[in-house]
Amino acid sequence: MDWPFLIFLGAIVLITMLPAWLTGSILKKASKVNGGGGTDWVPLGFVVYGLTEFKHPKKGAIVWAYVFSNILSWGALVTLVVIVLKNRR
Fold first, then answer.
1. What is the pLDDT of residues 46-61, one digit of tens each?
2. Would you call 2 helix, strand, or coil by DSSP?
3. Within a 10 A sphere around the Cβ of 31, how many other Cβ atoms?
4. Which DSSP string corresponds to 26-78?
5. What pLDDT band is residue 1 in, cutting at 50, 70 and 90?
6. Alpha-carbon span 66 to 26, nearest angstrom
7. CA 70 to each of CA 34, 43, 81, 86: distance values in angstroms, whole numbers, following the listed order
8. I need a surface site. Which of 4, 28, 68, 71 has the fewest CB within 10 A?
9. Within a 10 A sphere around the Cβ of 7, how many other Cβ atoms?
10. Higher-scoring residue by pLDDT: 39, 11
């Protein structure tokens, strides 16, 4: 098993979860004010709300960071799990 690569993927997962959580919380708070427009239980659950009803001066940056960090963190997490399961003895 390639430990440095697994540690790198783990670091990527941890580093990208923070902006995903922060931007998701911004979208969740704004959607509660507008009557609810998504869920944080589903990955990328606030994308539709973020692209349609979300009003914020930095809307593009927040929605882009939300989508990018979610895709990157879930991709790294799935890759990490697949590598660990493939190399199990």
1. 888 888 888 889 999 9
2. coil
3. 20
4. HHHHHHHHTT----SSSTTTTHHHHHHT---TTHHHHHHHHHHHHHHHHHHHH
5. low
6. 10
7. 23, 7, 16, 24
8. 4
9. 11
10. 11
* 57: Cα separation from own chain's centroid: 21
With cut-offs at 50, 70 and 90, classify the pLDDT of residue 89: low
CA distances, 18 to each of 45, 58, 76, 77 (Å): 17, 18, 14, 14
Is the CB of residue 19 less than 8 Å from the CB of residue 65?
yes
Give the tens place of pLDDT for each residue, 57-82.
999 999 999 999 889 888 888 988 89
Full-model pTM: 0.80
